[in-house]
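ok here's Sterol desaturase family protein, seq below lol
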Amino acid sequence: MNIGQTLYDELIGFFGVGGIIKIVQTGNYGYLTTLEGIQTLMGPIIPLLLLLEIVRAFFYKRFKIDEYKIPFLVFVLNRFISRFISIAAVAFCIGLLERWAIFTTTFTWYWLIYGYIVWELSHFVYHFLGHKVRILWCLHSTHHAPQQMNLSVNFAHFFLEAPYADVVRTSICILLGVHPALLFFIMFIDGFWGSFIHIGENVIKDGRLGFLNRILLTPSHHRVHHAKNPLYMDTNFCNLLNIWDRIFKTYQDERRDIKIEYGITREMNPNSLWDVYFGEFICLGRDIAAAPGLKTKLLYIVMPPGWSHTGDHKTARIARESFITSENSIKKDEIPEFVNHI
Ligand SMILES: [Zn+2]
Ligand SMILES: [Zn+2]
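and the structure came out like this:
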């Protein structure tokens, strides 16, 4: 094997510039006016932004290797195992479920809007379950382990998470009539935006993006999602449009008075690949081993993280609700004083 060639191929693949190089080599610039051509042009944007993020951090002497090391190692690990399982999972679901679709759609702008709303619903279902079912949290927690936000967090995923997410999302979309061509197009937009919302604070400090914060899910919303502050935990599950967060009451704005603390709440070593990748599985294994009876053991697998058979639950919902209650009671205490002044 030619190591130089392999490294070159990996770099070209990572930066997504293979398509552009081909266009330059063949001189077929007309291709850029097609839908695939536009996708080819968008491919390198996120990797180049990541490079810009790292260069800026170097320039301002804020670059810390630890902030990028683990997501990068997870990326390398996943690079070899995850991608192919995921593509196969999507193809399998389409082949299996297309005949059961409630109706069929076509590749038009109005079906694109319908398809995107359905896609966001399917994403909400996968992501919500990833936070509320303990065994699925074991898969998803790798993505939440980094204690800072930057584009490399995109690569921090447990290798089985992508196939699981794709099975849930593809199944729901296909059953609700989203045409496969439409689905692939939506997946592309979603992949791009889903990566962009991880942009670091050293590139875009205020992630609200102005008025866009009211109509789209912005980097600010996703930073809130990655926070372990009690008010922010388990909120903003959507990806581009936060309609389902608003409907299911999981929407949360970034508050200027509550600074985001990234990461997960358990004691962990964020610089250990082993802990980031398998830490939650080990905790679950310990809880199952200590639980009395088969039913309780099984409950640990499906109940939310923090659930305890002793009744001493420490779930995100309880932490958030008690934060809101205590904040409201502080506000109430302030009211009589205000009334007295009148
Ligand atoms: Zn999440
Ligand atoms: Zn994320």
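fwiw The pocket of zinc ion (ligand 2) is lined by residues 143, 153, 198, 222, 226 (CB under 6 Å). kinda neat tbh
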